[in-house]
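Sequence only, no structure available. Ideas?
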Amino acid sequence: MYRQFISLFCGAFLFFALMVGALVFVIDPLHYIRVPWYLNHIDYPERFKAPALAKSHTYDTVIIGSSMTKNFHPSFIDKKFGGKTIKLCMAGSTPREQLMILQLAIASGQLKRVIWSLDTSSYKVPCSEVRYDQGPFPFYLYENSFLSKLKYLYNYDFVRDSVVLLATISDLKNSFSVEQYEHYLDELHCFHNKKEFSFDGKIAMNAMQELLTPKNEQQFMSFIGKYHLTNVLAKQEQFQHTLDFYKREIIPVLKKQSKVEFYFFSPPYSIAYHKIHHVCNEAGYLQLLELKRNLYAELIKLDNVKLFDFQDVASITHNLNGYKDLTHYSHRTNEYIIESFATNQHLVDRRSPTVSIDRLEQQVYETTFANICLALTP
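Reply:
I predicted one. Tokens follow.
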């Protein structure tokens, strides 16, 4: 009798477990297993969404980087280069996180082109680490193993979401269209059309005015946090760690993927950002420029890498009306970046790779806050 009860209990438990796993497998709320077939109203964090897109979708071009890449439209890139583009960007992502998503895209066996932003803002967290300040990092989603799939199928949040979606799955299926989903992917993560953001330079103006107000240490740290400038306090050892990480972890992957084209670019932060960084920590800013020089020297050695620098393009960076804050620019600038890729404009010369960095340094020294504010005045 006891053995029969144990057998029944184990059988019932196994049946229940199989049903739970089957539910998540069919509903697939994260679309980790297949492209969606119904309208999903649940919005997951970028660090969950990116690996799902990399594993389940069809593409030959990926966009990797921080929020500097959010305003890219895959459809615009497809018109310029052909093929199929997908965005795998993650706001504030570290080089380690970016490398992890790249490796998933490589494992898909369909990758031909990578557009990758070189963000100095991502160096404030050690490059070899992931960020935990936005919640637990879902390592299992970045793995290609049977165990990682089980972790997805039996994750409490995904089981709960599957139950919620199942309740209205018929209506969600009828509301779905391929065209609608393609538009969703094209606008994914974009902020240029969000009502809460305005591209008028006011935040940059306020930051410069606040910086000029005398501050004690506590007020200065409050200023740094308010405008997301913690990276200006980065130290030389962090920059060296960044360079070492690229040389040890990223560049070997680039070399191995010799048939994949890599388009690296330094995004055009506003001149106000560079000036504030320089004023707050001149030694640190100069060390950052030196890191860029050393990193450029390593990247241009690779035949499958094209490196572009937009940080010295004054027509963009000195026009604060094209920014919603100190660093984030409008989608028009993203389009200009893609057009530059197609025409090799602002391409870093392999014979003299530091020209754009030297030009930026000169601009920072010559530019004053008064000049920046004057340019912003209508």
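The chain has two domains: 22-34+46-190, 193-295+311-330+360-378.
Hope that gets you unstuck.
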